[in-house]
Amino acid sequence: MIRFTNWAFKNKAAVILMVVLSLVLGIVSYFTVPKEFLPPADNPMVTVIVIGQDTDAETMAEQVTKPIEKAIGSVKGKKDVFSTAADGFTSVDILLDASIDMKEAKTQVQEAVNSIHLPEGYSKPIVSQLNIDMIPLWQIGLSFPGGIDSNAMEKVDNEVIPKFQGISGVSNVSVYGSQQTQVNVTVDQEKLAKHQIPLQALMGILHGKNLAVSVGEETIDDKTTNIKVVGQIDGIAALEALEIVPGISLKEISTIDVADSSSTFFTRVNGKEAIALVLYKEPNANAVAIGKKVENAIEQVNVDHKSAIEASMLISFSDFIVNSVDSMMQAVLLGALFATIIIFVFLRHIRMTAITVISIPLSLGLTLLFLWLSDITLNILTIGAVAVAVGRLVDDSIVVIENIFRKAQSRDFSKPVIVEATKEVASAITSSTLTTVAVFLPMGLVKSMQDLLLPFALTITYALLSSLLVALIVVPLMSTGLLQKGKLPAYKTPRQYIRILDWCLRHKWVPLVTSILIFIGSIGLYFAMPKGTEDATDQDVVLSISYPDEVPFTTVKEEVLQLETFFMKQSDVEEVILFLGSNPEDAEFSEVNAQNSGRFHVVMKSGASTEKLIGEIDQLKKLYPKAEMEVSFVSMMPSGGSTISLDIVGNDASQLGTAANQVMDEIEGIHGVEKVSSNQSDVKTVYDIIIDHKLANAEEVARQVQLLLNPIPLGMIKLEDQNTMVYLDSSMHPTTDHELKEIQVIVNEQLVPLSSIAKIDKANKPTSVLRKDGKEYVRVTIDVESQDLSKISYEITQKTADLSLPEGITIEMGGAASAQADQFAELFQLMAVSIGLVYLIMVMTFKTLRAPLVILFTLPLAVIGAVFGLLIAGTPIDIGAMIGALMLIGIVVTNAIVLLDRVRQNEKTMSIREALLEAGATRLRPIVMTALATIFAMIPLLMGKEEMGSLVSKGLAVVVIGGLSVSTLLTLIIIPVLYELFHFKKAKKQRMESLETQ
Question: Taking Cα atoms as reference points, which of 363, 386, 333, 387 lies closest to residue 471?
Answer without folding.
Answer: 363
